[in-house]
Amino acid sequence: MTTLTTTAFDTAVQAAVRAPSMHNSQPWRFRLRDGTIEVYADPARRLPVADPSGWGMRLACGAAAFNARLGLAVTGCPSEIEMLPDAASPDLMARLVPSGEGPATPAEQRLYEAVPRRHSNRAPFFPEPVPAIARTALVEAARVEGAWLELLIGQGPLAAVAEIAQAAARVLDRDPEYRAELAAWTHDDDDDRGDGVPGEAGGPSPEPQDLLPSRRFGDRLRAPGRDFEPDPLVAVLGTSGDTHRHQLVAGMALQHVLLTVTSAGLAASMLSQPIEVAAAREQLRLALGRFGVPQLVMRIGYGQPGFPTSRRDLREVIDP
């Protein structure tokens, strides 16, 4: 078995923590054990109101495992990911097992270089369409991880999904506990606490004319004439089922898609509202008319440059 160096482990974890998570809650922990890297869910950081089932926590851990695999690859240590490797340890989401030695592929190198630049862009996008070659690459990125990505084509499907998403957002916003939890994970731009969403990264506050819903991370008004694009590229990420393993697969596919977005000079924001409301999720599945379970909705396009949100110190996420 290949022995992981401290440098390889640190590189993997530094990449892993740049994964996305709901409200930037970062619900993960990492451990170097017997020459492998173990990725654990951190239930103390699961959002009890927005994510009572742990679905979002598992997506985040899957995305973190994907980044860690890239981090190992660029250190010359390719690895395989074992998902849910120990039934007696339910918080153990994945184990990265070295599979020899060798250089990273050009694709792995390109995706790894996108890791520190990837971030959610919640601001309005420009009207330029996403090129066909980029659309094909996004669909392929999900497929190779065992998931699917449905790109909505035409005003009819877009309007149907937008209506479902808006209805789900209204259900969530009526819950005072949901609003309080969101507020607890929102902070001022100059409060670098290492997690949560600063007001500037949260994007402008939602307005009635918006096609798609957005969360209210503070009360930041948009500039005049900067409404959201009327014809966005909306993608739905899904899997063949909805077990814990499927949700980890969705997380890995999500990160592969998002890094492909970043590498192509595009931007993306994620909409989980229609997944968080069970009835809306079923409506979304029926509206798509395809086999499988929706796991996340994304808005993709060209946006103004933003900045990644802060992450906690590695010492806070590494277990001895």
Structural notes for this entry:
The chain is an alpha+beta fold and 320 residues long. The protein has helices at residues 6-16, 55-74, 106-114, 132-144, 155-173, 176-184, 244-263, 273-276, 278-288, and strands at 28-33, 36-41, 79-83, 92-98, 148-151, 186-187, 197-198, 233-239, 267-271, 293-301. The longest helix is centred in the N-terminal third of the chain and has 20 residues, at 55-74. It has nine helices and ten strands. The protein folds into two domains: 6-116, NADH Oxidase (3-Layer(aba) Sandwich); 132-301, NADH Oxidase, CATH 3.40.109. The two termini are 21 Å apart. The mean pLDDT is 93. The strands form three sheets. Strands 1-2-4-3 form a four-stranded antiparallel sheet, covered by helices on one side. A four-stranded antiparallel sheet has the order 5-8-10-9, with helices on both faces. Helix 1 (6-16) packs across helix 2 (55-74), helix 2 packs across helix 7 (244-263) and helix 5 (155-173) packs antiparallel against helix 9.
